[in-house]
Amino acid sequence: MEPYFAKTPKIIQNVFSDFTWRITKSSNQLKQIYLTFDDGPIPEITDWVLKTLDKFDAKATFFCVGDNIKKHPKEFKNILNKNHSIGNHTFNHLNGWRTNTKKYLDNVKKTEEIIDITSTKVLPSETDLGWNKLQNTKIFRPPYGKIRTSQKRALLKKGYQIIMWDVLSADFDQNISKEKCLKNVVKSVENGSIIVFHDSIKAFEKLQYVLPKTLAYLIKEGYTFKKLA
Ligand SMILES: [Zn+2]
Predict the structure, then answer these.
(1) Contact 130, 120 (CB under 8 A)
(2) What is the pTM of this model?
(3) Ligand 1 center to residue 89 CA distance, Å?
(4) Is residue 41 reached through a cis peptide bond, with omega within 30 degrees of 0 on the bond before it?
(5) 10-225: CATH homologous superfamily?
(6) Fewest CB within a 10 Å sphere: which of 22, 28, 82, 152?
(7) How does pLDDT run across 82-116, given as a tens digit for each residue?
(8) How far is the centre of ligand 1, averaged over its atoms, from the C-alpha of 40 (Å)?
(9) Cβ contacts of residue 11 below 8 Å, gap of 6+?
(10) CA distances to 97, 122, 123 from 81, in Å
(11) How far is CA 17 from each of CA 8, 10, 26, 195, rounded to the nearest angstrom?
C-alpha cells in the first residue's frame, strides 16, 4: 500500500478546512477541473506540458520552486505568456515539518521576489505590474503537503490561499505503473477537483502517458480546465 492517498479523504478535507482541497463554490452545473503542476519550471518538460495543455485548450496552475525559476527564467516566462497561474512552492522545496517557521517564511518570500523580478521582465512595457497584480490571489502549496500550523497561520495572514489537492496522480512514484497513475486520477476525480501532477524529471515518463489521456477522458466527460487564482 502506498504511503499517500490518491483521493484525499473528506475527513481530512473537513478537519483542515482552512486549506483549499477542491473548488466547491462555483456553480455546480459547470463541470470544471483544476490541473496543477508542481516543482518546475524544468526545460523541455514544462514546455511539453504547455504544448499539451494548448492542444486541449486547457488552463492550469504551476506551483514553481523559486530556485528553478532562477535557473530557468525562459521556461517560467513561457508559463506566463500562455496565461496560466503561478503559485509559490518555496525556493528550495522545503519540508515544513522539518524547517523552523522563520526559515520557511524567508524561503517563501525569496520565491515571491524571484517571481516578481522574472514576471516584470516578461512584461517590459508594463514594468509597474508586479506578480501580485498579474493574479488576483497569491497562492501557495507546501512541498509534500507538510506545513506547520505556525507557518500556515503566517501565510494566511500574508494573504496567501493555501492550495492542497483532492486528487494525487502519484506521477512521482517510481513503484507504480503509468496505468495505475492514470487510474489514480480517473477514479478519484469529481467536479471542482484539484489534481496534482509534476513537471519534473522524475515524473516525466508517466506524465507523458497520463496527461494527454486525462485531458482527453475528462473532456469527453464534459469537463473544462480552469486555473486557480
Ligand atoms: Zn513539490
Answers:
(1) yes
(2) 0.93
(3) 7
(4) yes
(5) Glycoside hydrolase/deacetylase (3.20.20.370)
(6) 28
(7) 999 999 999 999 999 999 999 999 999 999 999 98
(8) 9
(9) none
(10) 34, 8, 9
(11) 13, 10, 17, 18
Burial 133-152 (b: 16+ CB within 10 A, else e): ebbeebbbbbbebebbeebb
Distance between Cα 176 and ligand 1 center (Å)? 18
- How would you class 8 by CB atoms within 10 Å of its CB: exposed for 0-12, middle for 13-18, buried for 19 or more? buried
Question: What length does the chain have?
Answer: 229
d(CA 11, CA 9): 5
Q: How far is the CA of 142 from the centre of ligand 1 (A)?
A: 7
Q: Measured in angstroms, how far is the CA atom of residue 81 from the centroid of ligand 1?
A: 23
Ligand 1 mean position, distance from CA 122 (Å):
24
